[in-house]
Amino acid sequence: DLQQAIASDPHNTLALYKYALGLYGMSYYGRSPNLFSYFHSTSDQYKYYKSKERDQLPGVFQEYYGLYTAEKYFNLAASAAKAATLKAKCTLGAAKCWQKRCARKGENDYEDLNYVTYSLTNPYFKILRTQYSESEFTKALYNTCSYYRDYVKKN
């Protein structure tokens, strides 16, 4: 069990990374959200945007949408990792978690431009660009992630 592996060795990079991936995978944005919630709507009012209403949800739902613990474990894995490629993968995982907490400007403000503008301020993109830009993973990321590519072009 990953939690036991982490408890016995808090610097177990692979266990930290796999745990973070598991948390992300079970979130609203992952590939297995039905492990947490039987109903998964594509028009869910709590997705992507952090709001007062979302902040009032029980903690498990805040994790489901906000990915706070997944981000923490991606950061722990990045700190424990030795290889630049794995550090970059962990940093991208943290970036994806951070991105899901865009503040809503108004009650009915779900504009894509607000989300894009927020995404271009992602602090993890700066880390990817300044510390891991030479890794093959980050070079490939430039061609597959439009948010990261736009960040690089802007900065």
Blueprint of the fold:
Layout: H1 2-8, H2 13-25, E1 49-50, H3 52-55, H4 59-66, H5 68-80, H6 84-99, E2 102-103, H7 112-119, H8 123-131, H9 136-144, H10 146-154
Parallel strand pairs: 1-2
Helix pairs in contact: 1-2, 2-5, 5-6, 6-8, 9-10
pLDDT averaged over residues: 90
User: What is the number of E strands?
Assistant: 2
Order of helices and strands: HHEHHHHEHHHH
Radius of gyration: 16 Å
Sketch the major β-sheet. 2 strands, parallel
Provide the spatial order of strands within the biggest beta sheet.
1-2
- Measured between the Cα atoms of the first and last residue, the distance is 41 Å
Number of helices: 10
Overall description:
- The protein is mostly helical and 155 residues long.
- The protein is 62% helix and 3% strand.
- The chain has a two-stranded parallel sheet with strand order 1-2.
- Helix 1 runs antiparallel to helix 2 and helix 9 crosses helix 10.
- The longest helix is centred in the middle third of the chain and has 16 residues.
- It is globular, with a radius of gyration of 16 Å.
